[in-house]
Write a structure and sequence with these properties.
The structure is a homodimer. The first copy, chain A, is of the alpha+beta class. Chain A contains six helices and five strands. Chain A folds into two domains: 86 residues, Winged helix-like DNA-binding domain superfamily/Winged helix DNA-binding domain (Arc Repressor Mutant, subunit A), CATH 1.10.10; 50 residues, Ferric-uptake regulator, C-terminal dimerisarion domain (Dna Ligase, domain 1, 2-Layer Sandwich), CATH 3.30.1490.190. In chain A, strands 4-3-5 form a three-stranded mixed beta sheet. A two-stranded antiparallel sheet of chain A has the order 1-2. In chain A, strand 3 and strand 4 form a beta hairpin. In chain A, helix 1 runs antiparallel to helix 2, helix 2 packs across helix 4 and helix 3 packs across helix 4. The two termini of chain A are 15 Å apart. Chains A and B meet through strand 3, helix 5 and strand 5 of A and strand 3, helix 5 and strand 5 of B. The structure holds a DNA duplex.
DNA sequence: TATGTTATGTTATATTATAACACTATCTGA
DNA sequence: TCAGATAGTGTTATAATATAACATAACATA
């Protein structure tokens, strides 16, 4: 994956941060939830529910889909992962708690999904909502194309 | 559906427009494709592939999933419908050929999906792409929440 | 009419996700 | 400390969404 020199660090950081957030919110960061989040980050790129399932199976015997989806639901609800609807895949949130609107730049070549926030974007969306008297609950913006690394090769 | 006084008109308009576009591009606007597009518009709100399948089944005997998905692929490729990834559903494009970036305001109460374009939004996305040296191929923005009609009730 | 191309039919199956109910672990207050 | 409540997980089954692969038909054009 591009731009990630010490990947084990980002996994550790993400897990530690999740731990903190859960503690602060009095949520249970169970083994399964930790394992799922770790796998999401290990992949460092969107990962599919059934891939998580497969990889977890070697750690936890005979794990079943509902278990994985429940853990993902928990992580989604608490802003620790995002779902990329256009891929049916999940990616770790690199700044949990801080985001309101996030978007993804998804490279169709290398598969990287870069998570970003942008104040202008948030403003535009806010403006659109106001204009339409719309109460925003959730926003999903996915931009797919070719990343700089890939089309410069 | 809100704001649609003569719905049969918008269906007819959409079909006529599709006909024109296909003729101009030398594409075959077959019976199945027309039927699928008509159903998408008849619903006037996002419709699911298997609902199309079911409704078509009364018109065309024993229609199968691939047939529906192929028609949808054709319509998607040619900008006549949009896919709403967060719903796994499809909606007619109300201004085919004209849109570059489109977004949807999806009401979780009444199910309406309002399709809109916005120059500011396009600009912001363009800016983001440039900043990241990213070549945009496709953008999907879905804003879900409560529409004005619904939360004023 | 022969030929290539595009569209559709058909069977089977892959992929993604959830319902429903049983059981276990953890927490809370008496 | 134990009784009940709540949250989490196990398990079985199945629902919902989507595509692969190959056969046939329709259409376009030389």
């Amino acid at each position: 994956m591009h731009n990630c020199t010490a990947h084990s660090d980002c996994i550790a950081t993400a897990l530690a941060e999740a731990e903190e957030i859960c503690a602060a919110k009095d949520l249970r960061f169970t083994d399964i939830r930790r394992n799922v989040l770790e796998l999401v980050w290990t992949n460092h790129g969107p990962i599919k529910a059934y891939d998580i399932l497969e990889r977890l199976d070697s750690r936890i015997a005979a794990i079943k889909p509902p278990t994985v989806y429940r853990a993902l639901d928990f992580l989604l609800e608490n802003g620790l992962v995002h779902k990329l609807n256009s891929l049916n895949a999940f990616a770790g949130c690199s700044h949990p708690l801080k985001h309101s609107e996030c978007y993804f730049l998804i490279c169709t070549q290398c598969g990287e999904a870069k998570e970003c926030c942008n104040a202008d974007l948030s403003d535009v969306i806010l403006g659109i909502a106001e204009e339409n008297k719309f109460r925003v609950q959730h926003t999903t913006l996915e931009i797919s194309g070719e990343c700089g690394e890939c089309h410069s090769l």
